[in-house]
Amino acid sequence: xxxxxxxxxxxxxxxxxxxxxxxxxxxxxxxxxxxxxxxxxxxxxxxxxxxxxxxxxxxxxxxxxxxxxxxxxxxxxxxxxxxxxxxxxxxxxxxxxxxxxxxxxxxxxxxxxxxxxxxxxxxxxxxxxxxxxxxxxxxxxxxxxxxxxxxxxxxxxxxxxxxxxxxxx
Amino acid sequence: xxxxxxxxxxxxxxxxxxxxxxxxxxxxxxxxxxxxxxxxxxxxxxxxxxxxxxxxxxxxxxxxxxxxxxxxxxxxxxxxxxxxxxxxxxxxxxxxxxxxxxxxxxxxxxxxxxxxxxxxxxxxxxxxxxxxxxxxxxxxxxxxxxxxxxxxxxxxxxxxxxxxxxxxxxxxxxxxxxxxxxxxxxxxxxxxxxxxxxxxxxxxxxxxxxxxxxxxxxxxxxxxxxxxxxxxxxxxxxxxxxxxxxxxxxxxxxxxxxxxxxxxxxxxxxxxxxxxxxxxxxxxxxxxxxxxxxxxxxxxxxxxxxxxxxxxxxxxxxxxxxxxxxxxxxxxxxxxxxxxxxxxxxxxxxxxxxxxxxxxxxxxxxxxxxxxxxxxxxxxxxxxxxxxxxxxxxxxxxxxxxxxxxxxxxxxxxxxxxxxxxxxxx
Lengths: 169, 426
Description:
The structure holds 2 protein chains of 2 kinds. Chain A has helices spanning 2-46, 53-72, 90-125, 135-139, 141-168, and strands at residues 128-130, 133-134. Chain A is mainly α. The relative contact order of chain A is 0.10. In chain A, 79% of the residues lie in helices and 3% in strands. Chain B is an all-alpha fold. Chain B has helices at residues 2-15, 20-34, 41-47, 57-70, 73-85, 91-107, 112-127, 132-142, 153-164, 173-198, 211-220, 226-236, 242-260, 269-299, 302-313, 317-334, 337-354, 359-373, 381-390, 394-417, 419-423. Chains A and B meet through helix 1, helix 2, helix 3 and helix 5 of A and helix 1, helix 2, helix 3, helix 4 and helix 13 of B.
């Protein structure tokens, strides 16, 4: 009973976080689109434009992309070569899958550690990317994305692993 | 030695289904460790996504494609093409080929074409007495037709990667678009000829041309007809850059489908946006980690060594092209087109240039191979999508698509060994 309650609470938190993440993704995409179109209009109609507009759009491409990649790792929907697993029996398939997910999580953890360290250095140095926005803020999405993707793949790996145990018991 | 064992483990990891971005990232990290570079450099490499203005085209065209896939654009396109081509012998088959090519150019060969258009065309083909095997083969192979027509995203991505390589030769996107036109048309024409031959005994009831129906179909699609024209004029007229065309296309399509045709509810729009960005994010992440990987490759002079190795084995340009075709066909069957481009172009392009192949021509050869790879047994992606969509065993689809594959292989040979076809407008 208690276990079930915990589970539904966990689900609620997860749904909430997913909604926030979806919202951020859509807002980022819309701002990128709006900013890009605004720049085109200003350039062609008034022969002017916001100086940092183009830089902002390009940084938004990075943010939209990595946010999309974060969402893609919810169910492990990343592009992969999938030749063998189709032909494996369920149990062996799950074992391989769990190992693969763990490996992905480990690689992302290493990347998260080093990119976070780099952003910390940029923070200490305090350079500016454009207008009054510091570079480290623009780069921050990189470690954030790796942390989130690593966490999600660790979770996927655990879930797949528990399926193996369940099927054997 | 340890390095080779590690690389072996990683290649194995890739083959059993590890996400490609993790595989590439792992290889890059091992490479950097090996040559004593601090791993923090990964941040700088991934941040280079923000230094490539052209990449904006990727999320925006993907978004536009997804919105078109969600709305009834495909129905209008079929109706329109049918009016103008349906009166010909083998009309419906040609209609299918032309609509698929146009639709794929805008939506990318992500399987959207089979899902959106196949569902319309397959029953229509069967109803017009085309035999089942022919119809299945036609819709399966047409799912990747049109990759060579503007504004195809794989073509744009090839241009972006080639430009990053600084090969000294100018590879502009508009040149690539021009180069793709005739080879793309060649494929459609050859497939149409084959369809005519294959269905020569078919008593298809022809739909005579009707001016009234033509007007109605055009009025129905009035908001979408200008789009291909706009892309062509925008790119070739030099008024807008590719990324600007992408931005305007995306906003135009949103306005048209959501507010004019009202086929996508405003409340549905965020989830379509999310779905498209999940796909695009996966690709951008691979591009990001590949920037690190490619940099390591160039530092380690891998393309140079590869070239020396290949040159010892292969002396003539023709032999190189034959090997390239075989290699790319296999690659296209096991890897999706974007990852294949991102991983292989940095390796193949320098080698191909040394053999005297123009980078623009190489791009067309590369995509033509990939297009066939989409339905190459046993693992081509289109086969699985079609099998799922039409509820047919995959072995039946293997048999159905083989004649079409042979026709496209002939087209591929012409495209590969006659560079003039691609380069005529340049």
